[in-house]
Design brief:
This protein is an alpha+beta fold. The protein is built from six helices and 15 strands.
């Protein structure tokens, strides 16, 4: 098994985040630091993360929580600057990590889990799992020409975006559906067509809606909701 997948199966982090931890030199195999996420490991290998033993076991109960992230909270398990983290909002004995990220100045639906395979499916671009955002912009109402550009894709500094589904949800409010996960993507898309985002909220992740969940509140997903997430996207 690849080392990154092993860490994910042990609930350390999502597969993508586990790759970053390995490259940072925080993982050892047999007492030796390994920086290659594709390094092969087996059940007999002694693996540590930050000095603590790591054991991947199928007996670990996989859980998923939905959280309504408030402003100012960071989408990490810990923060060197001492800011409130998304993980601190959920009271559970399970070791959770966020599925993807929302910027500190973005609110709304984020998922926490210890299921590395599910996190990989929900965040890897190849599965094209859709997310819906509501963006309040300045300078509205938004022109039809701007909507057409967003619907066909806009050029950003890191390349052309995929076409988005966009509708007006108010004079200066846009609802955008995208499946990519670039850094600050919605804000940059809106700026590219002439509108600065002044408030951004994610209201849906795949089949799961934010609904009436209050800011800062969390809830554990039902088995049916987790199954729907597992079936989300392509493939």
């Amino acid at each position: 098994m690849r080392l990154a997948k092993y860490l994910a199966s042990a609930g350390i982090a999502s597969r993508r985040a586990a790759e970053e931890l390995i490259r940072a030199g925080r993982v050892t195999v047999g007492g030796e630091t390994v920086t290659d996420p594709a390094f092969g490991v087996g059940d007999s290998d002694v693996i540590t993360f930050d000095g603590d033993p790591v054991v991947a076991t199928e007996s670990v109960q996989r859980v998923v929580y939905a959280v309504n992230k408030p402003l100012g909270v960071v989408s990490t398990a810990s923060d060197p600057q001492g800011r409130a983290t998304i993980v601190s909002l959920v009271r559970t004995a399970a070791r959770l990590y966020p599925v993807g990220r929302l910027d500190a100045d973005t609110t709304g639906l984020i998922l926490l889990t210890n299921d590395g395979d599910l996190a990989h499916r929900l965040t890897h671009p190849s599965f094209e799992v859709e997310k819906i955002y509501r963006a309040r912009v300045n300078g509205g109402p938004v022109r039809d020409t701007a909507l057409r550009r967003l619907r066909t894709g806009v050029q950003l500094e890191d390349g052309m975006t995929s076409p988005a589904r966009v509708r007006r949800a108010g004079p200066n409010v846009l609802e955008l559906t995208i499946h990519e996960g670039r850094k600050r993507q919605v804000r940059r898309m809106c700026e590219a067509v002439g509108y600065r985002v002044i408030a951004l909220e994610r209201v849906r992740f795949g089949p799961l809606e934010l609904g009436s969940l209050a800011p800062g509140a969390s809830r554990r997903l039902t088995a049916q909701e987790v199954a729907a997430l597992q079936a989300a996207g392509r493939g």
